[in-house]
Amino acid sequence: MITLEILFWTLLFIIFYTYVGYGILLYFIIKIRRILKIGNKTKVDSSYEPEVTLFIAAYNEKDYVEAKMKNTMALDYPKDKLNIVWVTDGSDDGTPEMISKYKNATVHHLDERNGKIGAMNRGMDFVKTPIVIFSDANTNLGKESIRRIVNLFSNPKVGCVSGEKRIIDKESDVASGAGEGIYWKYESTLKKWDAELYSVVGAAGELFAIRTELYRHVEKDTLLDDFIISLRVAQEGYTIQYDPEAYAIESASANVKEELKRKIRISAGGIQSVVRLSSLLNVFKYGTLSFQYISHRVLRWTLTPLCLLLLIPVLSILAINEGVLDFGLYSILFWLQFLFYAGALIGWFLENISIKIKLLFIPYYFFIMNLSVVLGFFRYLKNNQSVNWERAQRAT
Predict the structure, then answer these.
(1) Which of 2, 119, 141, 366 has a 20 to 30 Å separation from 174 between CA atoms?
(2) Residue 54: beta bridge partners?
């Protein structure tokens, strides 16, 4: 039993550190640095206003073109310094023809569908501005988003800037919306602290920017282009900064089935990224960046879901040995674990009968997040994930 107890506390520590502990540790590190006035505050020159390219890789996005262009033209940035480039590999629904009607946008179309990363690799040859900003066709940007992103590049140490992904929060949200919205709010806080400590570890594909000269063609089978591109910029000695007021907003997934589909792909891509960025695990070479990367990303995509799975039988054995109904330490933790998974099951049931209780959607969403990692791992091993993005249905 001693061995099981040691295993239990080890598993619990890894789980706690991954989802809560790192945030607590980061908070205190930032507080201490602020007190000692050694914070990593990025200097911003608000007058910095170079020419930039808004780059949109699209596949059959006809329904979003008009709204995207309207939103883009309303952004607070000089129109003569904003180049709008669409790359539409494989689109056959009239997307390129619709874009071509706008004189202030350039469209580069190819009949063959090569996936998003293929479109990005091809399209970057047409970018001539010092900064390129990537955005999705189905997201709207905050009015000051481009200006706020560009201002951070006035610091020569900054090689990449990530905006914030915001989920439309509606009272009618299903589990995917309630859970995803809470998740991204927590992620936003961690990103702000990561940036202040040293660097964000990864950018949101809905809105991020890099110095054009730092773009390197990415392997054509890459699943998480935003993550790979941004972390490789950081590996070259630049930082990834973050501004939550530079944001892209979109609806949550239509339901948890759609959200699970999306997250399985992301998880498979996350594991692929950990393998391809294995050199970043070297804390002796990358120091603080490695610490942040392992704590914020690697554990979530590798060890922690396994720990959650192992915790179930280990805690059950300890609770039975102690007496499940005696309410000792292990039995109490056993029942708390039981209530958590029961809450996830009830959340699933309630969504299926269209009853909205957001509190129960939180454990359900957490469960879905970790289930997606396990399923994504097997998908990665099978190597049968297409690079052609199958967009999840979004809530209306």
Answers:
(1) 141
(2) 84, 133
Residue 175 tokens read as 């589990």
Query: Tens of pLDDT along 132-171?
Result: 999 999 999 999 999 999 999 999 999 999 999 887 755 4
Rg value, the chain, Cα:
22
Model confidence pLDDT, tens digit, residues 186-220 = 888 999 999 999 999 999 888 999 999 999 999 98
**In 238-356, which ranges are continuous DSSP H helix?**
256-276, 283-286, 288-293, 299-301, 303-322, 329-352
Chain centroid, CA 276 distance in Å: 17
Name every residue whose Cβ is closer than 8 Å to that of residue 234 and which is 6 or more positions away in sequence. 159, 160, 199, 201, 240, 289
Task: Enter the pTM of the model.
Answer: 0.87
- The string of pLDDT tens digits covering residues 318-365 is 999 988 888 899 999 999 999 999 988 887 777 666 666 666 677 887
- What distance in Å separates the CA atoms of residue 371 and residue 306, rounded to the nearest whole number? 10
CATH number of 1-396: 3.90.550.10
Mean per-residue pLDDT of the chain: 88
Single-letter amino acid, residue 197: L
Q: Quote the CA–CA distance of 226 and 224 in Å, as a whole number.
A: 6
* Sheet with 131-135, side-by-side order of all strands: 105-110, 82-89, 52-57, 131-135, 207-211, 158-167, 239-250, 140-141
H/E segment holding residue 382: helix 358-382
Summarize the confidence of residues 92-106 as an average pLDDT: 92
Distance CA 262, CA 390 (A): 8
Find residue 134's DSSP bridge partners: 55, 208
Look-up: residue for tokens 């809905």? 206
